[in-house]
Automatic annotation (TrEMBL):
Reaction equations catalysed: a fatty acyl-[ACP] + S-adenosyl-L-methionine = an N-acyl-L-homoserine lactone + S-methyl-5'-thioadenosine + holo-[ACP] + H(+)
Name of the protein in its database record: Acyl-homoserine-lactone synthase
Enzyme nomenclature, EC number: 2.3.1.184
One protein family per Pfam: Autoind_synth
InterPro entries linked: Acyl_CoA_acyltransferase (IPR016181), Autoind_synthase (IPR001690)
Key words of the record: Autoinducer synthesis, Quorum sensing, S-adenosyl-L-methionine, Transferase
Keyword S-adenosyl-L-methionine (UniProt): yes
Molecular function terms from GO: N-acyl homoserine lactone synthase activity
């Protein structure tokens, strides 16, 4: 069963998750809000990208990527990521090669890169915050399994790396030590994709849901 289409998945929270390919297939307003959210994170907060207007858009957005987008009930983008096969241009190879250390950059068809991976800082509701992250990661894992992708490589700040590891329980392997970029530390890491990993995440989601339901009933 696809995690993305299961009742368990739909019960996560009132978030809307979509995989959207290419800008001409995305509602213009959603695309604008996604790029504005990226501007908040990667320009204003992390300082990874110089300021150019109110949206953060780069060359890799012209390559037909898939986007994972998580919105709240008000339509605010609260999490997002971009996925591209590493057989072509990638941020890790072409923008952040220092994060590879001494390793060669993966460039096979079965390895995809997650870039511009970001989560809006919590405003007090940590349960909703965690579930938004679980939703986004679960969708990306589901997407990868369904397409025969065997490995996901991500570039992120170290704070998000810790949040993903703690929330999902997925083993994340660093390619090298973190590097200072802008105002924060960046790191590249990978995780293997498999039906077993997807099942483990589904089990974690069930336990997470049961724990929260028990707290609500207490």
């Amino acid at each position: 069963m696809s995690l993305g289409r299961s009742p368990l998945w739909m019960a996560l929270m009132n978030h809307q998750i979509s995989f959207l390919k290419q800008s001409n297939q995305i509602p213009p307003d959603l695309l604008r809000r996604l790029f504005e959210f990226r501007h908040e994170v990667f320009v204003q907060r992390l300082g990874w990208v110089p300021a150019r207007g109110a949206e953060e858009v780069d060359y890799f957005d012209t390559l037909g990527p898939h986007y994972a987008v998580c919105q709240d009930q008000d339509g605010q983008v609260i999490a997002g990521a971009r996925l591209l096969p590493m057989a072509g241009p990638s941020m890790l190879r072409d923008v952040f090669p220092a994060l590879l250390g001494d390793r060669p950059c993966p460039q096979d068809e079965g390895t995809w890169e997650i870039s511009r991976f970001a989560l809006r800082p919590t405003r007090g509701d940590r349960t909703a915050h965690r579930r938004a992250l679980l939703s986004l990661v679960g969708r990306m894992l589901d997407f990868a399994v369904d397409r025969g992708i065997h490995r996901l490589v991500a570039v992120s700040d170290t704070r998000l790396e810790r949040l993903v590891a703690d929330a999902t329980g997925l083993p994340i392997h660093r390619l090298s030590s973190p590097q200072r970029i802008g105002t924060d530390w960046a790191v590249a890491g990978w995780t293997d994709v498999s039906t077993a990993a997807r099942a483990a995440l589904a089990d974690r989601l069930r336990r997470d849901r049961a724990r929260d339901d028990a707290r609500t009933a207490a």
